[in-house]
Design goal:
There is one protein chain. By secondary structure, the chain is α+β, with helices and mostly antiparallel strands. It is about 45% helix and about 10% strand. The protein has two domains: about 1-110, Intergrase catalytic core (hpI Integrase, Chain A); about 170-325, no CATH class. The chain has helices at about 1-10, 15-20, 55-70, 95-110, 130-140, 145-155, 160-165, 170-180, 195-210, 220-225, 250-270, 275-280, 285-305, 310-325; strands at about 25-30, 35-40, 45-50, 185, 190, 220, 245. Strands 5-4-7-6 form a four-stranded antiparallel β-sheet, covered by helices on one side. A three-stranded antiparallel β-sheet has the order 1-2-3, with helices on one face. Helix 1 (about 1-10) packs antiparallel against helix 3, helix 8 packs antiparallel against helix 9 and helix 8 crosses helix 14 (about 310-325).
Length: about 350
């Protein structure tokens, strides 16, 4: 049963207290009949949360349900816990110190050290049952899961909380930025070649200093750079500014901004309770809409001309770069979407 608890920590990324307090009937299904784990977020007082899980994890839970029922055949299933203590009637969960002690003994009994990718050994005293919540986040981040989706999986309301749970290695990040360096575009959608290396150095410096990008590209305007991207003197009219550059990793934001411009234009034109001067002020510029459309078209056209191998390399680079980027509200239209959690990630 302790081994089941450890496997559930690894597979689900839940907190130890959440796993130990799982009810017997914690296995459910979503609207597509895929398995979900039903648990209580005890830290934030959010009961009956639903987490997508793999079929392997579901089988593990099902087997434990069967074992618990065999131990307590007379117990009411609605009152049983999945991982019960041995001295009760199946209604009280095992103590947390049990899983901590057993986990520590298991680590110390391993025949070989646990090593990182660089060959160095982990300090076993730093590996605790809670560590698997971090590895859950890292595993999904390495697989390219979007930040908003990962935040939903982790049960976080703030993206910054999720970002604290995983890292993107500097070597991988630099390699990703290197691949994108030759696929830069100016505000007209012109492919930039001549200063790719200078832009590359700027991008590495920006990551090293922890600066944020502008909503859908990078900005070299001095006062805005000094403010970390939050003080544009031109109200973020990026496609009309020579300080603005972009690359394919920002394409989703550029498309979303174009969608917002078109939606706002239709909404303003359909309004019947606005005076003409107010409509003129609120109406998105046709020049800006045309410029953004052209920018999207040129970037997509450029990507289509690449070979399949080059496209795959660019896709990998985009995934790595986007995981390190946090686009915050900088005076641009906000984009609110319900993340699609998709299929759960199988543990290796």
């Amino acid at each position: 049963m302790l081994a089941v608890a450890i496997e559930l920590l690894i597979d689900t990324g839940r907190r130890p207290s959440e796993i130990l307090n799982l009810p017997w009937d914690c296995l459910g299904h979503d609207h597509d009949d895929n398995y979900v784990l039903v648990y209580d977020d005890l830290k934030n007082n959010r009961p009956r949360r639903r987490l997508p899980i793999t079929e392997t994890t579901a089988k593990l839970i099902s087997a434990q349900q069967h074992a618990t029922r065999e131990r307590f055949p007379d117990g009411n299933p609605t009152e049983l816990v999945l991982l019960p203590a041995s001295d009760q009637n199946g209604r009280r969960a095992m103590a947390r110190h049990q899983i901590g002690r057993t986990h520590r003994d298991w680590l110390e009994a391993l025949p070989t050290p646990i090593r990182r990718s660089d060959g160095s050994s982990y300090d076993l005293t730093t590996i605790t049952p809670y560590s698997y919540r971090h590895t859950y986040a890292q595993r999904h981040a390495d697989a390219g899961v979007a930040l908003d989706v990962l935040a939903e999986l982790m049960g976080h309301e703030l993206l910054s909380s999720t970002q604290a749970y995983y890292q993107v290695g500097e070597k991988r990040r630099r390699a990703a930025v290197d691949r994108l360096a030759n696929h830069r575009f100016d505000r007209y959608g012109n492919h930039i070649w001549r200063d790719a290396q200078a832009l590359l150095d700027d991008e590495h410096a920006r990551h090293a200093l922890g600066q944020v990008s502008v909503p859908y590209g990078t900005c070299r305007e001095p006062s805005n750079v000094q403010a970390g991207g939050g003080a544009c003197p031109f109200r973020f009219r990026c496609v009309g500014c020579d300080h603005f550059h972009t690359d394919p990793s920002h394409l989703p934001e550029v498309k979303a901004y174009l969608h917002d411009l078109l939606r706002d234009r239709e909404r303003v034109l359909a309004a019947t309770d606005l005076e003409n001067w107010a409509k003129t002020e609120a109406l998105p510029s046709e020049v800006e809409i045309r410029r953004v459309k052209d920018l999207v078209h040129r970037v997509e056209e450029h990507l289509e001309q690449l070979t399949p191998v080059e496209q795959a390399d660019i896709a990998t680079a985009i995934s790595a770069v986007r995981r390190t980027r946090q686009v915050t509200g900088l005076g641009m239209p906000s984009i609110n979407r319900q993340p699609d959690l998709g299929k759960p990630l199988e543990r290796p």
